[in-house]
Amino acid sequence: MQTYTLNNGVKIPVIGFGTWETPNDTSGVDAILYAITQAGYTHIDTAAAYRNEESVGKAIRESGISRDKFFVTSKLWNTKRGYDNTMRAFDRTLQNLQMDYLDLYLIHWPAIETQFPDTWKQINLDTWRAMEKLYKDGRIRAIGVSNFMPHHLQPLLDACEVVPAVNQIEVHPGYQQVEAVKFCKEKGIQVEAWSPLGRGDALTDQTIMDIAARLGRTPAQVCLRWVLDKGLLPLVKSVTPSRILQNIDVFNFSLSPEDTAVIDALTDCGGMCLHPDKVKF
Ligand code: A2P
């Protein structure tokens, strides 16, 4: 698996196995184990809010492959913001995973002005201070954020000691987030794309289906190639063996500049299209 190099020198595999909605039971463990042992994924993305950290840890242990061959990400949930809460939540995450370090820990969503009119910046900063402490203590190899738009990131950048290594945001052909991606690139922050298939919606878009048919590829492979070609890191979720295999088989074809331009011009082909300032959680 190819890697990107984060702003602190840590290498991260360019595709991650997403686990949002992967069940925290044997079927979930089996799907993750299949992804590791049959398809070769080493980068697994989970979150406290997914409630499946136990299954991620179990699958990694059951694979028999040593921990240091994996890149494991988890995320701090919104109810655990603030310095002390973050410290406790991190310990809980490690307990769930039964691991003694994380490769990447992210603030799942920014505190926002509509929910915390006077304190949102300070809450994000207090949370970040805990992330920095955990990072400096060597308990996490890299720290970052998720669902931060430039106006959430800038106050953090103005005050942080450690620049976030990653921003994980929703990106797919139906929600391209051009401004946020540009901002992160300028600041040396690696963008990860959640829901790179637009929750599956992009796969029935006629334009994407036509390009896939012409190239002898699947619509999912076209979406993932398009994300990779932008220098972004797709986190692709599936519990279906054939799809798990297909989604990592994207390194032996390319999209022409013309096909890329056609996908770039798509505006609405589904996905959640969530804006962090509008969420209720
Ligand atoms: P499943 O897990 O049942 O295989 P996204 O990552 O954009 O949120 O999309 C995830 C959704 O897309 C899941 O419902 C997943 O279904 C489905 N999916 C994942 N890979 C493929 C694929 N290669 N072809 C079709 N659907 C896919």
Secondary structure topology:
Elements: E1 3-5, E2 11-13, E3 16-18, H1 26-39, E4 43-45, H2 53-63, E5 71-76, H3 83-97, E6 102-107, H4 120-136, E7 140-146, H5 150-159, E8 166-170, H6 178-187, E9 190-194, H7 206-215, H8 219-229, E10 233-237, H9 241-246, H10 257-264
Parallel strand pairs: 3-4, 3-10, 4-5, 5-6, 6-7, 7-8, 8-9, 9-10
Antiparallel strand pairs: 1-2
Helix pairs in contact: 1-2, 2-3, 3-4, 4-5, 7-8
Q: Can you tell me about this structure?
A:
The chain has 281 residues and is α/β, with parallel strands linked by helices. It has a single domain (3-200, 233-241), classed as NADP-dependent oxidoreductase domain (TIM Barrel, Alpha-Beta Barrel). The protein has ten helices and ten strands. β6, α4 (120-136) and β7 form a beta-alpha-beta unit. The longest helix is centred in the middle third of the chain and has 17 residues, at 120-136.
